[in-house]
Design a protein that fits this description.
By secondary structure, this protein is α/β, with parallel strands linked by helices. It is built from twelve helices and twelve strands. A hairpin with a 5-residue loop joins strand 6 and strand 7. The radius of gyration is 24 Å and the shape is elongated. The N and C termini lie far apart (49 Å).
């Protein structure tokens, strides 16, 4: 996968070298910005899509720089970032060109931080508890440790609180049984959980349809001690982890592909906690795909992302996943609650600020009384309109100038 994704960066540099773009004129710099931006987008969206670390993700370090996402989105900000980089590079060739390509970043920075003042509405108060059990990946699916793992989650959930907890959240695939068809185990959970009003957890959901056994990676909202159960099936599955791409084609080549693929969910489901609080459920890296829910952005007022990053180990992966989650909170203009198996669990506000978090490989809970807010963002209305408009305009300018130059040569 790394080799495959690296090809798009390689192609960008090949095209820049092949066409020998010059950095002492506007057309040359614009062409390079356009090529980098286009192939960054292709890399993140080709085939099944894997927009893990676009160039714009470098801006998550500060509230003032991350705020631009709320206006022009991930790919629009990537375009502006490449423009800034090329503006810096062009200083030694022509300072006027440099200032020109600097200006988009300065414009959107001022727009996001000093000019636009989106309305922020208060929705409701909510006391939540995030539970991070820190169960090792090798122990997570060990049948002999199922009871121990469940006890860890229950003991953390039962820690005393001064106030009644409105919502407890467990991580992705927290329990290793089918919630919908395991009454005995559900009764056991009821008997052991003390603070049980509303519980979100991840589990495997099984179904039988058209003479096929289907399995889903699902998020469940459990209420009234299992009397009411809502669920969301994961829409964006991890290639090679949750399914084998092109399995049908590969099977025709007489390759032995064992195991059973997870099934893609039908559609995004908004979960209703009460009359005021509506939850957008996101499982694992669904958090990096804002388009799957943008059309329904007015139908929910909090995002809950459950994940299991244990297979990353102590690499940069969990930290990158957290930074990408901060971007999603800014795009949506809403609180994002992130609960991970081994970390990093966090509460992120609409400005992308991490208000509370549990460190990687730490076991514990976060209790937080939230005043849910909703910030109207331009991105929620326009999506990636800026990016595609900028790309189209750039192509038209480049083609127009190339045709004009070709005409001058013939004259």
């Amino acid at each position: 996968m790394s080799i495959f994704l690296s090809l798009f960066t390689a192609i960008s540099f090949f095209l820049i070298k092949y066409f020998n773009f010059q950095f002492n004129n506007y057309l040359g710099v614009l062409s390079v910005v356009t090529i980098f931006s286009l192939f960054d987008w292709i890399k993140g969206n080709i085939l099944w899509g894997f927009p893990w670390i676009p160039i714009s993700s470098i801006w998550t370090f500060d509230e003032s720089t991350i705020s631009i996402f709320s206006i022009i989105g991930i790919w629009g900000y990537s375009f502006v970032t490449y423009s800034l980089i090329l503006g810096i590079y062009s200083i030694k060739y022509n300072y006027k060109i440099s200032i020109f390509f600097f200006s988009p970043f300065i414009f959107f920075f001022c727009l996001a931080n000093f000019i636009l003042k989106p309305e922020i509405k208060e929705i409701d108060d909510l006391l939540i508890r995030l539970v991070q059990p820190n169960i090792k990946q090798e122990d997570k699916w060990d049948i002999e440790k199922t009871e121990k793992n469940l006890s860890t989650l229950i003991n953390l959930s039962n820690k005393s609180s001064d106030k009644e907890i409105d919502l407890i959240i467990w991580p992705e695939t927290a329990v290793a049984y089918n919630i919908e068809k395991s009454k005995k185990k559900n009764d056991f959970l009821i008997s052991k959980l003390n603070n049980f009003n509303n519980l979100i957890l991840g589990s495997i959901r099984r179904d039988f349809k058209d003479e096929q056994n289907l399995i889903y990676n699902s998020l469940f909202l459990i209420q009234d001690k299992f009397k009411r159960i809502q669920h969301h099936d994961k829409l964006k599955l991890v290639p090679f982890g949750e399914y084998i791409p092109f399995r049908g084609f590969l099977n025709k080549r007489q390759l032995t592909l064992g195991g059973l693929d997870f099934t893609v969910g039908d559609k995004i489901k908004i979960l209703k906690l009460n009359d005021k609080v509506k939850i957008l459920p996101l499982i694992c890296y669904e958090v990096i795909f804002p388009n799957i829910s943008r059309k329904k952005s007015n139908n929910y007022n909090i995002l809950v992302n459950i994940t299991n990053d244990a297979w990353y180990g102590k690499s940069r992966g969990p930290y990158q996943h957290l930074e990408l989650s901060k971007i999603r909170a800014v795009l949506e203009g809403k609180y994002l609650i992130r609960v991970a198996n081994t970390g990093i669990s966090a509460i992120i506000n609409h400005n992308g600020t991490v208000e509370n978090h549990l460190k990687l490989t730490q076991s514990g809970i976060i209790d937080k009384e939230l005043v849910l807010t909703k910030k109207n963002t331009l991105y929620s209305k326009l999506g990636e309109t800026f990016f595609f408009s900028a790309l189209l305009l750039s192509f038209l300018i480049i083609i127009f100038n190339l045709n004009r130059r070709s005409g001058n040569k013939h004259e």
